[in-house]
Each structure stands twice: as C-alpha cells, then as structure tokens.
Amino acid sequence: MWFKWSCLRRLWPALLLSPLAILLALSPASNRELFLILHEAGRIAPGAFWRMLSVLGDWPTVLVLLLALSWRRPDKLPALLVGCGTGVFLAIALKAGFAEPRPPLVLPPGSVRLLDDLPGNGSFPSGHAMASATLASFLYYSGMLRRGALLTVAVVLVMLSRLAIGVHWPLDVVVGALLGWAAMWGACRWAWPHGGAAGLSARLQSLMLPALVLQLLWLLYKPGSHEEYGLRLVVCALVLVAGCRRWRRAR
Length: 251
Description:
Elements: H1 5-26, H2 28-41, H3 47-54, H4 59-70, H5 77-98, H6 103-106, H7 127-141, H8 145-165, H9 170-190, H10 198-221, H11 228-250
Helix pairs in contact: 1-2, 1-9, 2-8, 3-8, 4-5, 4-7, 4-10, 4-11, 5-7, 5-9, 7-8, 7-9, 8-9, 10-11
Keywords: Membrane, Transmembrane, Transmembrane helix
Transmembrane segments: 47-67, 79-98, 148-167, 173-192, 204-223
Organism: Chromobacterium rhizoryzae
C-alpha cells in the first residue's frame, strides 16, 4: 500500500496546514479578508486575554519552558537545541528576507484595533506561531503525546491571538506554525535520534541556568508595558528556582 496510516499520525500538521498556506499565498485577497473576519471576531475577548495567550508563543518564554521539559527527557536535549536553533534562525532570516508589512501599516485607518505594541520587524512568518508549534512538537515527538495534543490547542489559540492583537496576517501564523513543527520534527527525527549522552545533557542543562538568570535580570531591568510581562516574569522565575533545586540535588 503506497500510503501508510502511520504517516498520518506523524505528518498530520503538514497535511493540515500546507494546503491552507498554499491557498492563502495564492490569494492575497482571501488572506486579507480572513484577517479582517478573525480580527473582528477577536473582539469577543478583552485585549488582556489575547496578550496573555501570546506569551505561549514568545520565544524567550518558550525556550524556558522547553528547558523545563528537557528535564523529563534529557536524552532529547540535543534535538531540542537543534530544533530551537533552526526555528529561531528561520524566523530571523525570513522576516528580514520578506520584510512583509504588518496589517496596521497596510489596511485603512480604523480597520485594525491594535492591542499591543507594533513590532518593528517583518510580519512573515509569525515567530509566536513558530515558537508555540516548536514547543508542542517537542512534547509530541518526545513521547508525551497527551500533553502534545493539549498544547496543539494552545498553538491554535496563539495563532488566533496574533490575529486578534492585529500584528499578523493569517498566512503568517499558518506558515509560522508549519515551520515550527517542521523544525522540531526534523530535529527529533534526524538530530541525535537515539538521544544524547546523559552526562552531556546534564552539563548542558546546568550551563543553561546562568542564561535563565540573565533573562530574569533582563526582565527586571526592562519591565513590559502590559500585564503579560508579569506572566513572563513568573514563568522564568519558577523554572529558575526548579532548575537550581535540581542542580543542588544532583551534586
């Protein structure tokens, strides 16, 4: 049989998102109309709700959560680092390469209710959708299927939050999620598929704790302008405390 059902289980994000991405890319008018529809529908929830959801797609926050998840699967740490590094590189390179203007800069005044600060970089692809999809993929392909499935729902909500906030087009979030999934899926499949050495993973995790300290200090030094700043601060602080406790017990 030319098609194996196991492929559906492994590749369902690509099978689901690729046709939608192609459709939106070939029809800019549909991309714009879908944005207006979903952006308007986002008014049913307050701006604080969408900004808090977006924290699950914030790269610094996602990297902190991925570090915490690696404590459960230390053998997957090398793949995690490759997947995240690939995702961050793609986000930076594609945003700079395409330099796609964000909706408030293109649509007529009054069409977009901007709920957060407008980022200064390009719109395509969505880094938030990419980061959240990377997080969900790591859970899913590291054997934590139930948590990965639950977080997939969170990825969809993060994608919607970027439209409701008014900073991304539908094509941005669809391609971002697809790239985030592909980066982590490829890393889990081909980058140290049998896991890294336990000693090496433990040393890498210990080295990441100073980076967490620096991030926490940066958050304290540069407070945010909205309530989601507090959530980022709490997540970083909790993971740092948990990491320090693990490090002390391991000594």
